[in-house]
Fold this protein.
Amino acid sequence: MARTLTATMRAVAVTPKQAGSARQVELPVPRVAAEMALMRVLEVGIDGTDTEINDGLYGEAPPGFDFLVIGHEALSIVESVGEGVDGFEPGDLVVSTVRRPDDCPNCRAGESDMCLFGNYTERGIKGAHGYMGEYYGESPAFMVKIPPSLRPFAVLLEPLSIVEKATYQAWKIQERMLWAPKRAVVLGAGPIGLLGTILLRLRGLEVHVYAKSPPESSQGRILSSLGASYRSVGDHPVTSIKDELGQIDVILEATGNSAVAFQAMAQLGTNGVLCLTGVSAGNRSIEIPADVINLQMVLGNRVTFGSVNANRRYFEMGVQHFQQAERQWPGIFQRLITRRVPFADFTSALDRRPEDIKTLLTIAAA
Ligand code: BGC
Ligand code: ZN
């Protein structure tokens, strides 16, 4: 479709480090070079990072801008492609990855999620505009094609990619020993905790989820459909998990609460692995039972590791697991989408309500 230079589009932007600054901005529709595609955004998922950015805790504008277009979880449709683009055509559904490489060896090898220099950018988060607008320009290297059958929930691919990486890395780390994990604990029942539970159940583990919501919440019902147990931390504190369950082989920390991360270290079983995924933007100090944790880590060969972001390999794994999980638990992913908000109400989409699992901002109808 021919577009004039003056075509503009709506987007949602913040002034980084300024709380509550989310507002609508008008930007030119990107003009894409021959080796790029123009993406039309259908819907954008909102997560804790977006809320923290809008709370002024996180986020960085691109060079030359004093605002940042937010949004890093988008399902889009290819509007047009430059003549140098192979493998994509108008009408294809796409989810883009988030991080853009610097020139460190890992980034150059396609593993920008393991960046060494830290000069990467992240769309909608750090130094690059995101997807919460009508259009964006993209290189095929960062576009992941989505089969049309996944349209109703493919917007969850970015958060799924985060737990794809986390679980893949946990298993990779455990190749250090003979390891036959049976029992996993997931801390937190937000999108990361629930998607993590799906992946751990697909790997055949018994999964116990500890979180704040009451058992009769929709999170509790989703977890019981998955054959996972759900325990409310009101009655089952994190500090007594191992007394309740016994040997725990894997813990996935998905609350974003750094105190819980340290409590979890003391709950891990012999030869167990704890994966931390929470980005805690604050500056909190706590007291911890350092001797006990240290002794257990040593005597039980335990590992705690952090995992951030995901390169396209993990998005591709996510596409496979979407299909596998839908066969096993039809409709499971759509149950995670609890609120769809029209573009005009973006401020309400950025509010977090206790009953929310995943909120989507609808940008275009089809
Ligand atoms: C995003 C990641 C990103 C991380 C840190 C998360 O919300 O999903 O892609 O690397 O924030 O900025
Ligand atoms: Zn790098």
